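Entry:
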Amino acid sequence: MTWYTVLVLAVAGERLAELVVARRNTRWSLARGGVESGRGHYPAMVALHTALLAGCLAEAGFTDRPFQPVLGWAMVAVVVAAQALRWWCIRALGPRWNTRVIVLPGLPRVTGGPYRWMGHPNYVAVAAEGLALPLVHGAWVTALVFTVLNAALMVVRIRCEDGALARLPAVDARA
């Protein structure tokens, strides 16, 4: 399980890197008149994502399930793909990417990168990671609980984000 702990800690480190980028981007957005929406659900999102990481380690440690190579390695590939998609989203949105919902009035909606094909690709990455990371080491209860709670949270989050983005013109701002 040591290597699984390293994987979960690596994902935690990636999340910390995201927060550094998000804080920098928050300052950039607010300095340019950015408007934040959805503050009420943000603490629940942070708690859920933290619980995912803790749940992965706790369930894998307490249940002592054996690593199942076919499932485990397939889920590692999904985790890696989710990270790649997430950072593609971050790159496509540039300084407008954030863990919060902050919209800059007057700037067009980004329709390049993965946003060319779907409205919320970062949430696809979150859902994939939330299912796959626990399943790398058989933590199916954590995968199930996170997936259900995340789906409920995403209903709120996507409504909030869509409402904020609806006020922006739809012009390709970034290829």
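Helices lie at 2-31, 42-63, 69-93, 121-135, 140-165.
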